[in-house]
Every structure is written in C-alpha cells, then in structure tokens.
Amino acid sequence: MLRRVTSNECFLVTAAIAGALFIPAALAQEGKPAGNLAEKHGGATTAEALRNAPGQNKMVWVSAPKAGKLPTIDGTLSLEQGEWADAPAIAGMLAPAGGRLLPLKSLAFITWDEASFYLGMRTEVKPGYVLRRKGRDMDNEASRDDVVEIVFNPLGRDQPEPAIFQIMYNALGFRWDAMQTVGVTAKYWDAATWEFKSDYRPGMDHWDLEVRIPLRSMRMKSPNRSGDCWLFLATRDWKGLVDDAGRPQWNIYSSLTGNGGFISQENQFPLVLDDSAPVAQLLDISDLWKGRFGLKARFANTTAKPQTLTVLASVYDNSGYHGRDKDWTEREGPLATQSKEFALKPGEAAEWAIHGTALPELAVDPATR
Hints:
It is a single chain. By secondary structure, the protein is an all-beta fold. 3% of the residues lie in helices and 42% in strands. The chain is built from two helices and 26 strands. The strands form six sheets. Strands 1, 2, 5, 11, 12, 13, 14, 17, 20, 21, 24 and 25 form a twelve-stranded mixed sheet that branches. The protein has a five-stranded antiparallel sheet with strand order 6-9-10-16-15, with no helix packed on it. The chain has a three-stranded antiparallel sheet with strand order 22-23-26, with no helix packed on it. Strand 13 and strand 14 form a beta hairpin. The radius of gyration is 19 Å and the shape is globular.
C-alpha cells in the first residue's frame, strides 16, 4: 500500500490502489497527538493500530515488501538500470506553510531486508543553483547546509524508552544526528554505522544519495519481519532558494507529508513491512505545478502469487488548504478522476501515465499562498 496525498497552491491529488495501494485519503484529525499507541502485540504496534490512531498522519502510507534485489550503495540511483525497481517510491516534497507542492522534482525510495533499511533519494537542482555544502564537522555545521533529514520511529519496539532517531546529511556526507527521547531532545547517538554515499557536483541537475541504515544502529535487537510497523519521514532543507519576488530565503523546509515538525509523531507516516504487498511507485506529479492532472506511476508484483490492482487517481481543490481535516475530500469531491486495473503475474510490472489534462482555474485566496 502506498497512499499519497499531494497538494500545490490549488490542487490535491490522491492516487489510490483499491485493496492494496493508493486509497482515498482518510486524513488524520487535527490537533490530536498520536501519543503511545494502545494496541500492541508482543510489544509491536500493528497496522490496524496505526489506521485507528487519532491524529496520526495518514496522508502518506507505505506498505513495503522485502527487497528481492538490494541496491548498491554507491550514491547513484541508477534508475535506468532498475536498481530501485523493488522499492516503493514517493514523488514530490511539500512545504508545511500552506501544504504546497514545491516546483522541484524529488523522489524517495525505501526498502528493507532482515538487518537494514535502504533509502535512495533524488532531488532536483535548478540551473544556476549550487548546493551549500560547507559543513565539515560532524554533529555541528552540516545542519546549516543543503541537507536531507531522515527520521525513523520504531514505535517503542526493542526500546527501553520510546526513541526517535533523526539524522541530517549534507552532500559531502557530513552529518548531524540526534536520538529524541521522552523529555530529551538532541541527545547525540552514534550513527557512524549508517552507510551514506552521495553523487553531486556543481552543474548537475540533481542530487542523488543512498543510505543503508542498520537496525542495530537504532538499538534494535530483533530483525525486520513482515508485519513490523514503523513511522518514517524524509525531508529536504533547501538553502538559498528565492521566492516569487526574487527574495532569497535562508531555509525552505519541505517533507513527504508537508505537515510541519518532523519530530512530532503525527507528522511522520506509517511504513508497514508487508511481503504480500505489491511495489507501488509514484514517480512524477510535476503536471500539478502547471494546473494539469497528470502523473506517472509504476506497479510491480514481487510476490509468488498473481495480483489484481485497481488504481484510482483523483485531483481535489486544495486552494483553501484543508490541512489534515479528515473529511473534506468526501465533502467536496474530486475535480477529476481516472482509474485503471492491472493484473500482474509474479515478477511482472506495469506503468501508468496520465497525460496532463487541464484543470479548471481556481480562485486562490491570497492568504493561502
């Protein structure tokens, strides 16, 4: 399952796969922290508990099958060679202010095996923009650069006390890391065993990075297993962008959920390890920047059984920015919808492209811009 709700100034798109992948968003209630999830089985939070947790972010939901072929951690995503073909993918970063989709392409892939998680990210670099990468001091200066932030929350599993693991990397591989525990923030922990590789040079039109995250680095005693549930978030902090008026902005924070503070549990999204799930990759939603309904997606069956997927993609008016109001999509209905069914034999994959069609012009309240 991969549920993605994406918004720009005017539109929100929900890509949904009935029964397995994208389903119409049931957005979390505003202002109610998830807190400690009550439903536990053997000390592990269940997917059902996450679905029912009040206030938990459900705008992105990823069910990830175990990787059949692990990526090579060399800093280059090698997408044309299919290196990340077995990993769920999410396109687009949202700014928390107004929930707007940034007009900068981004992709995030995540997969796993028994001992580690694997993360691959590609973010666009516009012509003339040079990544700030001056920090060469671990746990200090790197946070002032263009960075990617990664947050893993094991939801208390194997933890003597609940802890959230946060790390920032600049393009040179220097990091800032912190273990957030109850009542303690910015408590440094040793993330040196994370294997990080980066590919960026001035003049490139993107920044690639790949990371292997060993479970033991996060104090985990048991291996990854199908059915395990985590919360996760990847963000991109941009230094030196300019706004519409040409004014430089010191830091533009963006994330896969666009809901503000990355340490707040309700702003992280569920990552459910599920060997029965298909691979869902939402690869491109840049048509939304132009007020057009279009996307590119890919689906793969890495299981041993045939799978039938019904895919639904819808676009909603988000000009008033509804935040995490859980019912507004049901109240207002979509501006446009398309659906398609895929029958995938074991080992098969299929692509779906919705070619951009014009959406109606919307009157945008200046207060929401």
